[in-house]
Design a protein that fits this description.
This protein is mainly alpha-helical. It has helices at residues 3-22, 32-50, 55-69, 72-84, 88-114.
């Protein structure tokens, strides 16, 4: 199948899932939907790359599906709004758990695929 079509199909599916997650209520001011999308997406992407998926499946799931699912732009906007509102405690917490959680999710995917310890 043409790579562009695979990316488009994956992107459409990922975007729909992203929309579903966006409906999750914020917890203590932290945008839970965006947080979950980025952590789940980090883990899923690490499983994909560390298990060495290539070709059509990579384009469908990795570039398309996870590209449409995860959202750094929304994370950045929400963080900016917290800064605008001078909600610095939530801002620092959100950045720390998002970046830290993403790194933990990638490490978990690596460990799941390689069986190695860090």
């Amino acid at each position: 199948m043409d790579t562009l079509i695979l990316v488009g199909i994956g992107g459409a599916a990922g975007s729909v899932l992203r929309f579903i997650f966006s409906r999750i209520e914020a917890i203590r001011g932290i945008p839970s939907g965006t947080f979950l999308v980025n952590i789940v997406g980090s883990f899923a992407f690490s499983l994909l790359v560390f298990s060495q998926v290539k070709g059509d499946l990579y384009y469908l799931i990795g570039t398309g599906g996870l590209g449409g699912f995860t959202t750094f732009s929304t994370f950045s906007y929400e963080t900016f709004r917290m800064m605008e509102d001078q909600d610095y405690r939530t801002l620092v917490t959100y950045i720390a758990i998002s970046v830290g959680g993403g790194l933990v999710a990638v490490a978990a995917g690596y460990l799941a695929c390689t069986g190695l310890s860090l």
